[in-house]
Specification:
Layout lengths: L16 H8 L13 H8 L6 H5 L10 H11 L12 H20 L43 E5 L2 E5 L7
Length: about 170
């Protein structure tokens, strides 16, 4: 077993089934991002004043969206990552939900993203393939492939890198 945490933020623990339920059971994790409805997602986030990108990373609200995928989801949905949750429309929440389903299913199909540091490998020690389909993540300075007008920008939100196209994802 090799555990490599390039940012030094993770840890590994073994839990008995009872400990797991106590630690991460009911109320600790939000519904799975692939199982939540558009209405549930909107209801969980719409009253919050936080930027939508930061809110999507909160595993207590919706589980399963990591930093890389949050940037990708918001690009597909054409939502600026700094847009506040409490200012998004029903139509924007529906786009975020549809983009979440699309991006996560696509990432699963390509078996995840192996970045340049090579930290992610599957159980057979093979690289994922989704990094070849990134729209914005880790592409700062490159032209947006969707609009071909914007240049992908990198900002920091809640100590995490966020990537977006200022042309496609206007505030």
């Amino acid at each position: 077993l090799l555990y490599w945490d390039r940012r030094g933020l993770g840890n590994v623990r073994l839990f008995s089934p009872d400990e797991l339920r106590r630690q991460w059971g009911e109320g600790r994790l939000g519904p799975d991002a692939l199982a939540i409805s558009a209405e549930q997602l909107r209801d969980a986030l719409r009253g919050r004043r936080r930027p939508v990108k930061v809110a999507l990373l909160d595993q207590a609200i919706v589980a399963g969206i990591g930093n890389l995928y949050a940037s990708e989801i918001l690009h597909v949905a054409e939502i600026h990552p700094a847009a506040r949750c409490d200012r998004l429309t029903r139509a924007q929440w529906q786009r975020i939900h549809a983009a979440t389903q699309h991006v996560l299913r696509e990432a699963i199909r390509y078996e995840g993203s192996t970045l340049s540091d090579g930290t992610y490998r599957n159980a057979l020690n093979q690289a994922g393939g989704y990094q070849n389909h990134h729209r914005v993540y880790d592409l700062a300075g490159q032209q947006c492939r969707r609009c071909e007008m914007g240049v992908i920008q990198r900002i920091v939100q809640a100590q995490r890198a966020t990537f977006f196209c200022p042309h496609c994802q206007r505030r």
